[in-house]
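#struct-queue
[09:14] JT: dropping the first one here, sequence first, then the structure tokens:
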Amino acid sequence: MVLCVNLRPAVAGLPPIFTQLQDRLALSSVDVTLLATIPVLCFGLFSPVAALTARRFGEERALGGALVAGAAGLLMRALLPGALLLAGTVVVSGAIAFMNVSLPSLIKRREPRRAGRLLSLYMVMLYTGAITSSAIVVPVYRSTHGSLAVTLGMSAVPMVVALLAWLPQLRYGTARRAASLPPGASQRLPRGHVRRHRLAWQVTAFMGLQSMTYYATLSFLPDLFLSRGLAPSQSGLVGSLLSVGGLVSAFGTPMIAHRSARAARLLMIATVVLCAAGISAALLAPVNAGLALMPLLGLGQGAGLALALYFVMARAATPAVAASLSALAQGVGYVVAALGPLAVGSLHALTGGWRAPVLVLLLATAAELVVGLLAARPHQVPAPGPAARYVPGEDGGRPTP
């Protein structure tokens, strides 16, 4: 849980001080765009490397290395922001990608019967870190008289705390990892094994679409509300309301989905309905009413991310398959997610309005429902050979033929 707190502060803590960074470091608009895009791209690009590393050294050691790299990246951009802000962001974002990929397979391997409960706590800590960092970064900047070293470096503190808490896990060696697997469940899979199964691509498509709509709405909603007459001083409320809603739904969603496939399907429908209603309200409802409805959109988005991570675990027959499925879903998914803000911005620039971007996002939400219902079926991506019979935990699921 201490490790999970670190999954978003390095990313969520930058946007509130983009203006200050531009003024202090003479950043161009291109630099700011890169700062906003680099984390999502790194989540996608580093995911396959993370899976290979975890398979070679084990999730415990891969996560320990990621915590070291994450702390180093945060200190790089704190001590030399003028020279290493972008490079430090790449390093810490790559480290978070390792955590994103390795944590679900770690839970699958070591606590499969409690996967729903642990993933719920995972999501709560993720949102807690995101909300806290975005809320305190501006007050810290002002109270330290504009100290970038303190403001950018404070995220390294929970990263170092997590590393110290994780040190005992580094002793969890290969022999104990192998002993935790059922007979025949190898850590190694044939090349491309997971990619040959339709279910893996359905999980990947759901991860990509829900991430794309999340990052797109996060980037355009403040501007949309401002164009409709919202006071500039209130624009920061949009992201906060989304995060609060996401925190509420993220807690219970994995535990409910873990009960049965029917529960997962009903959650999927509710998730998409909430997202579609929230996106529509931002454009069509009166401004104050639309702002008040943003927690509903946050509820849908939080549930969507929780379901995507849950499917990575529940639709994999073994921990090794879960690691490969996590790398595929997050590698492709976050690259797709990076296209969301770009597509919305381009459509807004071309049309001069918000109807076309909102329509595209509603179509993406409809597609999210289709692939999500397919991913919610109680099947699993099997491991080759006898390991395909290993199905811990989830509602009597069975390997996909």
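[09:21] JT: and here's the second one, same format:
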Amino acid sequence: MGASCLLLAVSALLASGSAAVGAETIDAGTESETGQSVEPGAGQPPVAPPDAGATQAQAFRENHLLGDWGGLRSSLWGKGIQAEVLLITDPYGNPSGGLARGFTSYSMVSADLKVDTGKTLGLKGGEFHVGFAVNFGSQLSQDYVGNTFPIQSSDVSPPGPRLTTLSYSQGLFDNQLNVRLGRLSIDSLYGEEFAASSYFRQFTSVAFNAIPFAIFYNAPGPLGYPATTWGARVRYKPAGDLYVMAGLYNADPDVGQPNAYGLDFTLRGPAFGIGEIGWLRNQGPNATGLPGNLKLGGFVLGGAVPAYDSTSTRGGRHGFYLVADQAIARLGPQTGGRQLGVFGSLVTAPDKTVSPMPLFFSTGLVVNGPFANRPKDVLALGVAYGGYSSILRRQQEAQALLDAAVRPQVSELTLELSYAIQLMPGLTLQPGMQLLIRPGGSPSTPNALALGVNAVVSF
């Protein structure tokens, strides 16, 4: 798809201003611009609180292409059962640069079911979650460009079907303590787990979406959605803005092979551990300031791998990360969600003898609701950088003397500019462009331009 076609499509949709946007749900009376509830005027009859089922049915109609499924969805919700079906598809091509020019389309369909055990079994605070996904199509990064940061957001797993989640979580002490066990990943399709920011979800490139890429790259294992493995996660959030979270997972890479379909239930290890402390700024029920997040964490992967500087094996693969985001300006009423925000992430894996990408960072701007008549649209601009191990590079340079196909890796840089357009509830198209500097980290690979559309359909 050419840049002119993308720009024409965006211009036409922006000019129309006809995206279907659901109305805000109000608890009683009306809301002021500060988001505070306003009582009905004197002499007027009191406004009855809305029926919870009717409110939820309206929310389904506002956020899903097929709405309330003819009442089935809200009926299941009343029984404690929540169903989600999602399609992500990414037709993208590179008209210039990379190893070769080409066009591909890669997609993922996921189906998830969550059961509130408080409503179904009387076990308050519990949730059972089962999910499936299938990836299909061809991958632009692997088949044509040769870059490390996948261009398409659905390019997070090889083609094929797989079990994604089979877990149980239990909240204790008014959910200040939450424990989750089962088949898990360290990120999540819905909600957030480790190293997450809602800002990351606004991008197509996997360099940003859904958590900093270098965590997976330096500690390989079937740990990122839709890959799944045995794990346990504990989260403690007392009253206030701080929380702590830790997880332990089986990081056997064979578990994530496509022919295992997510059903390899072995527990051979090695173990992967991760911990995080976070500050949720201005996110309490009565907060009026601009919201932000600050998260500090570390990870360690057990087992030993061949070291880059010797013929021996070595353990000690570990790293640290920082994730931060902050809304810096509101573009309308507080309840509308229209705002300008900034984000950043940093990952460092200090041991260059076993860590292929010792330094990674990303930063950028996100505008939620850039225009008053299109409050659900999102404008995103970001840059992500990954610097490769100098010890690995020296090994590759020695190999290149014997094999010209070896391309020593220095660093890779991705810049993304995209605009997500909500055409109707549950249907978003995100035309975008990505500039890929030194694809695969090699200066000998021509810089590439990738153009395409990320389409997300929530049924």
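[09:30] RK: nice, looked through the second one.
[09:31] RK: DSSP finds seven helices and 20 strands in the chain.
[09:31] JT: good to know. The longest strand covers residues 81-96.
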